[in-house]
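User: Just a sanity check before I run the rest of the batch. Below are the structure tokens for the first item. I only need the designed sequence back.
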């Protein structure tokens, strides 16, 4: 277990298991709380209470109903649910709760205290965090990013001084950008970046590239200094490949078969 010193957010220990299909196990001291996105829960020990909360459970929401509505409204803008789930250890000893990545990839631990209190990530990459960490929307001041960002259009910001976890698809690349150094990334392959990175959208350019390239029309451009996390397999790309290979109109795809339709008659699955 790795111990992290934090100030306002709850202090949590964690361990990440697995290689391609990972899950994170979080160890809670008595009365400690971790909040997570709906659908990420895997298992928990006896003594932990699970409670659905409005918004992200950060301390800013203690100001009243308006603060809670504002926090929840920001989550709706990023395409997430109004509600999150809080897990509190109500026992006298340490208890563990685990959360799983929703698709093959890596879970990335983010220590906000070491990153200046803020991390910007894709809208569907947040997994869980210590209570006190705020999850909201990152507004862009650049019209190009807002109009043409595609998958990178609406970004989430994770703020606070605690521990948060995000997940990525496929293999994860961590890039350290020097001041002024520029990196161009497919908008779907961007997982997140630190607050000092300058983020914008750039047109690919060229008629042939636009019409016949087969890639996106826009790049995400990231300029240092800062740290950038890149994923090799965005979920949208994985889902697109699965959909393209799925049976259409009740028929199967005979990949590599020389018999084609005749093979369907002989394979025992004759649903005509």
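Assistant: Here's the designed sequence for the first item:
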């Amino acid at each position: 277990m790795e111990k992290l010193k934090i100030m306002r957010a709850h202090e949590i220990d964690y361990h990440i298991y697995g290689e391609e299909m990972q899950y994170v196990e979080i160890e809670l001291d008595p009365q400690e709380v971790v909040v997570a996105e709906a659908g990420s829960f895997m298992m928990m020990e006896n003594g932990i209470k699970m409670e659905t909360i409005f918004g992200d459970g950060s301390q800013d929401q203690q100001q009243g109903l308006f603060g809670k509505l504002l926090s929840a409204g920001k989550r709706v803008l990023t395409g997430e649910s109004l509600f999150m789930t809080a897990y509190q250890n109500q026992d006298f000893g340490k208890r563990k709760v685990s959360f799983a990545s929703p698709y093959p990839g890596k879970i990335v631990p983010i220590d906000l205290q070491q990153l200046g209190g803020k991390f910007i990530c894709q809208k569907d990459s947040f997994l869980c965090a210590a209570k006190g960490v705020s999850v909201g929307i990152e507004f862009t001041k650049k019209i190009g990013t807002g109009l043409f960002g595609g998958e990178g259009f609406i970004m989430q910001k994770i703020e606070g001084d605690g521990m948060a976890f995000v997940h990525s698809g496929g293999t994860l690349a961590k890039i350290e950008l020097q001041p002024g150094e520029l990196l161009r990334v497919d908008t779907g392959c961007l997982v997140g970046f630190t607050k000092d990175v300058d983020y914008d959208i750039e047109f690919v350019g060229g008629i042939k590239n636009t019409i016949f390239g087969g890639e996106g029309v826009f790049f995400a451009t990231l300029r240092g200094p800062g740290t950038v996390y890149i994923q090799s397999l965005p979920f949208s790309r994985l889902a697109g490949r699965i959909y393209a290979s799925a049976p259409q109109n009740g028929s199967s795809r005979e990949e590599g078969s020389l018999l084609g339709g005749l093979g369907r008659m002989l394979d025992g699955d004759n649903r005509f």
